[in-house]
Amino acid sequence: MMLSGFFRLGVWQNFFRAWRGGYSGNLEGEGFTLGGVYVVGAGRQGVLLEHREKEFGDKVSLPSVLEAAEKIKPQAS
């Protein structure tokens, strides 16, 4: 996102939401890499949940992570 991420309204909304919620980071690091969350099942189940940040501060839904984790089936030996 580089500089364009700085001017996006959603980025600022996410920043203020985190700030009001008491989150404080160290603000060290590159700062230009977006993250993501994957829930991967055992064996051939593959990816059960994929969430990629579209802008800084874009959070994954915790209930969807838990729902995907409950779908993981133990791999037969």
Automatic annotation (TrEMBL):
Keyword Ubl conjugation among UniProt keywords: no
Pfam families on file: AhpC-TSA_2
Gene Ontology molecular functions: antioxidant activity
Subcellular locations according to the entry: Cytoplasm
GO cellular component: cytoplasm
Membrane-crossing segments per the record: none
Keywords: Antioxidant, Cytoplasm, Redox-active center
InterPro entries per record: PXL2A/B/C
Protein family membership: Belongs to the peroxiredoxin-like PRXL2 family. PRXL2A subfamily.
Protein name per Swiss-Prot or TrEMBL: Peroxiredoxin-like 2A
Organism whose genome encodes this protein: Bombycilla garrulus (Bohemian waxwing)
